[in-house]
Amino acid sequence: MSLSPLALRVLQGLGALWTAPNTLIGLIGGLAGMVAGARPSWNRRDLAIVFRDWPWGPGGAITLGNVILHTGPVLDVACRTYAHQAGHCTEPVIGLHDHERAHVYQYLVLGPLYLPVYLVCGGVSARNPFERAADVYAMTGRGWWPGVP
Description:
- This protein is α+β, with helices and mostly antiparallel strands.
- The chain is built from six helices and six strands, in the order ααβββββαβααα.
- It has helices spanning 5-18, 20-34, 82-85, 96-110, 114-120, 129-140, and strands spanning 39-43, 48-52, 61-64, 67-70, 78-79, 94-95.
- The chain has a four-stranded mixed sheet with strand order 1-2-4-3, with helices on both faces. A two-stranded antiparallel sheet has the order 5-6.
- Helix 4 packs across helix 6 (129-140).
- The longest helix has 15 residues, at 20-34.
- The chain is globular and about 40 Å long.
């Protein structure tokens, strides 16, 4: 099933409203990071405000609604899948921006339910179906929702 561009934008707008509480958390984190040098920019492709050079965390990125907090200077970098890092399999590197875009899409669907559901599913781990779906999407451009090829 394919949606018209207008219908897709309407659904994305409704999803953005639905996940606004998560986006607000991301904006607060991003604004706090600006004091220490984080730089925001709108990324149309990822449907998110990306705060680059976010100063806290172990490295990488975290998505909160339509906000991506990234510790590096550019989001368009290669990274390993969670399953590869955990030693479950060998997979090619993926684009971090594609992985995080999948999480933005997931937030648009689940809205304020995303964080509790994500945590119940295992949090940041190779076992989490949301992380696996984001990795698959980053590898193939399809399947950003868990269990949907």
